[in-house]
Amino acid sequence: MKQPNTLIIGLLLLSVVIGCKQTESEKPIERMLPPVQKSAQLEYQIEAQLGEGAFWNPISQQFFWVDILGKQLHVYNPATKENRSYPTPSRIGTVVPQTDSTAVVALDDGVYILNLNDGAVSVLSEIEKEADWNRFNDGKCDPLGNLWIGSMHLEEKEALGSVYKIDALGKTEKMIDSVTISNGIVWTKDQRTMYYIDTPTAKIMAYDFDPNTATISNPRTAVNVPVSLGYPDGMAIDAEDKLWMGLWNGNAVARYDPLTGNLMETIAVPDAHNVTACAFGGSNLDILYITTARVDMTEEELIEKPLSGSLFMANPGVSGVPSTLFATPASDE
User: What is the DSSP letter of 50?
Assistant: First the structure.
């Protein structure tokens, strides 16, 4: 009787071991499966040289964006398919609406308030006015309504840029230094974490954010973006606190989980090569509007992808959160 019992026990133990090995071997296979991919569609055809600064105004239900090198602020109305353009005196790095008639914009020699009625600009901060080796790039407002705006090295080679925080009165503080190409910046729903991209690092950095003082601490890497996918550019955050970023040289928008660093899915933009930024829009914030660029493309690439520089849209299957207007604290709801 002892031998059969021993044999049975041994067989049971062997089956458990085999079952465990099969389970463990299946886990890497699941992680290696490619993410689900959707495709974006053309929303508005235009030949922007460097479309950027994607921002959905939840009040006016319009999409604000810029053509940096074309020196144009654009306001697009999806309901009418109309795109209003405002020429700017120099390159415009980003835009964030303030009221129904004003917006804050970053130009070559500082940050200004632009009047949407007549196009006039008034200075808010003259930060980096003399730094002619830099220009401003992407920027967004924190939950308190402060503008966080980054600069970048014109030649894109040296870490000479910085990220600044500018309040409603123009008070300016340097928050991050040694930046090469400052790009996407977003905050979580609980207002406790800020995510930020310096494009050449191919990383998304996370910072602890203090909503009482609008200060950051504890920088750490949240996501490493493989260069094979493209370079991380402008960024948006959804209602699940997942990150969406345009992929420069990547023909797509990528969604990442910043808590695990894993790529969750991508949205292909087959008709454009350099995908620059995105923002959740629409009445339910369930449409992703996407900006693209024509700059740094060869003649052959432009022939192959003639819609580069246009606006695109996609249905991501998840909603975003309302973006904060300049000098207007975010709602607690």
Answer: B
Beta-bridge partners for 57: 62
Do the bridges between strand 62-67 and strand 51-57 make them parallel or antiparallel, or are there none, so unpaired?
antiparallel
> Whose CA is closest to 274, among 252, 304, 298?
252
Q: Note the pTM of the prediction, 2 decimals.
A: 0.88
Residue 99 is which amino acid?
Answer: T
Cα–Cα dist 279/264, whole Å? 18
Task: For residue range 271-302, list pLDDT tens digits in order.
Answer: 999 999 999 999 999 999 999 999 999 999 99
Of 56, 97, 88, 84, which Cα lies nearest the Cα of 69? Answer: 88
72-77 sheet: strands from edge to edge: 51-57, 62-67, 72-77, 82-87
Query: How far, in Å, CA of 238 to CA of 152, rounded?
Result: 26
Quick: pLDDT tens for 161-179. 999 999 999 999 999 999 9
Give the count of beta carbons closer than 10 Å to the beta carbon of residue 171.
Answer: 11
Please say whether the dihedral angle defined by the alpha carbons of residues 324, 325, 329 and 330, taken in this order, is positive or negative.
negative
CA atoms within 13 A on the CB side of 94: 30
Calpha distance 91→145 (Å, rounded):
24
The pLDDT assigned to 332 comes to 53
With beta carbons less than 8 A apart as the criterion, state whether 71 and 300 touch: no
- The residues, ordered by sequence, that sit 6+ positions from 197 with a Cβ below 8 Å of its Cβ are 182, 183, 184, 185, 203, 204, 205, 232, 233, 235, 245
C-beta of residue 40 within 8 angstroms of C-beta of residue 268: yes
Is residue 25 over pLDDT 80? no
Confidence of residue 11 (pLDDT cuts 50, 70, 90): very low
**CB-CB neighbours of 155 under 10 Å:** 10
What are residue 249's phi and psi, to 5 degrees? 65, 20
Which residues have C-beta within 8 Å of that of residue 165, sequence separation ≥ 6? Answer: 142, 146, 147, 148, 172, 173, 175, 214
